[in-house]
Design brief:
The chain is α+β, with helices and mostly antiparallel strands. The chain is built from four helices and six strands. It has one domain: Nuclear Transport Factor 2, Chain: A. It starts with 5 loop residues before the first helix and ends in a 19-residue tail after the last helix.
């Protein structure tokens, strides 16, 4: 494990935020594992991609078919050793309708030789799906409790 310089992590995020595909390719390890949590039937960019070619296809072709004008703004970044954790907000436009969407997102990344080898993105998929479908989801599961308990 060799530490990744914070400047490398920031440069990776800069390339990701402006969708600089050539620069992004330089930051990806050939054997990168790229995982985005969420329901793949509604958010087809979710799921796991293994290998640089599939990740580049996801970022350059697959994701833009659903969303355009994607922007990611990192609010908090922690770099420790070969790993980085980032909390931010993704904003985009739904290509089919022109509808703006925005949701919180967290990334957990491992670097090897200053390249991303493992990327896990945890999105607020409930919020994202509600915005994409344009209606509120019924989250009531039929379970009620009494008192000061909150179900999540």
């Amino acid at each position: 494990m060799s530490p990744v310089p914070r400047a490398i992590v920031e440069a990776f995020y800069h390339a990701l935020s402006i969708r600089d595909m050539a620069a992004l390719a330089n930051f990806l390890h050939d054997e990168v594992v790229w995982t985005i949590s969420g329901p793949v039937d509604i958010l087809p960019f979710c799921g796991q991609r293994v290998g640089k070619a599939l990740v580049m296809k996801l970022l350059g072709r697959d994701s833009p078919t659903l969303l355009s004008d994607r922007r990611f703004v990192a609010k908090t970044m922690l770099v420790d050793g070969d790993r980085a954790a980032v909390l931010g907000r993704l904003t985009a436009t739904k290509r089919a309708s022109g509808q703006a969407i925005s949701y919180r997102i967290a990334h957990f990344i491992q670097f090897r030789d200053e390249k991303v080898v493992d990327y896990v993105s945890i999105i607020d998929s409930f919020d994202a799906v509600e915005q994409l479908l344009r209606y509120s989801l019924d989250a009531y599961d039929g379970y009620r409790v009494e008192g000061d308990i909150v179900t999540v």
